[in-house]
């Protein structure tokens, strides 16, 4: 099997070269990089190989993509970008404070929709708009 070299570059510019064979796929690359995380990248480590994304020629490569499909030729160094997949987490609940909280779920504070305090979503040409049916302060978020 022919060997190829991937130079993976993080968003902060740090680079590291890894050796693979032409029959490997992107999923194998992610698992190998995660298992052999370079010491110089210690501060950039992710919790799981599944959180790594690889970009080559402006495209995110999926796990099953082969080097041949991605136009990676053996015998040369190919640079790809390695970026962590953004992790969406729930916001931390605010500790008790003197200001009343407003929530999109309604029910508390002054963010009412109808008489039950629930905001109403309506569609418009510019996207969905969360509106309230009374004059109290409420959320007027535009969801696209």
Task: Compose a concise summary of this entry.
The chain is mainly β and 144 residues long.
Structure description:
Helix content is 7%, strand content 29%. By secondary structure, the protein is mainly beta. A five-stranded mixed β-sheet has the order 2-1-5-3-4, covered by helices on one side. It has a three-stranded antiparallel β-sheet with strand order 6-7-8, with no helix packed on it. It is globular and about 55 Å long. It starts with a strand and ends with a strand.
Helix fraction, binned, reads under 10%
First and last CA, distance: 49 Å
Q: Report the mean per-residue pLDDT as an integer.
A: 76
Described by strand count, sense and barrel closure, the largest sheet is: 5 strands, mixed
Listing every helix as H and every strand as E from the N terminus to the C terminus, the arrangement reads EEHEEEEEE
Shape: globular
How does the helix and strand content classify structurally?
A: mainly beta
Widest β-sheet, arrangement of strands: 2-1-5-3-4
Report low-confidence residues grouped into runs of 5 or more. Answer: 106-114, 118-136
Would you count the extended β strands for me? 8
Give the C-alpha Rg. 24 Å
Bin the strand percentage.
25-35%
Number of helices, where a helix is a run of at least 4 consecutive DSSP H or I residues? 1
